[in-house]
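[Structure tokenization] protein backbone as discrete codes

[Encoding] learned vocabulary of local backbone shapes

[Begin record] amino acids and matching fold tokens:

___
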Amino acid sequence: LQLHHSGCYHCGGWVGAVFPLWKESERVTVKVHRVPLSGVSLSAQPPGGQVALGDSLVLSCAGRMGTDPLSFSWHREGSWAPLGTSPRLELHHVGDNDSGQYQCWVSDGDSVAESDTMNVTVL
């Protein structure tokens, strides 16, 4: 089901063999509810968020539950300015200034869920 499936439904059909009559059922209202966001998780490649100076790091964000469509934003050290807006954040040629706490925020348009923070260490 999708949210746009909410509405009023009924069925109808011809009843009787000799003089068929069109009959309709009672109308039923169906309301599809949003699934609240939950279970936002963060993973890294290489695992653990430790990366050698000049190498690449990929952070991935996923939610176990939530009504689509979902939007993503990446944040570092609690900053409101997003670093990216896709489920993956790719850092190429990392430098010392890329070390810190990273977090993913996921929104379904009504609410926002945050991942735990991941400490990224550039070695």
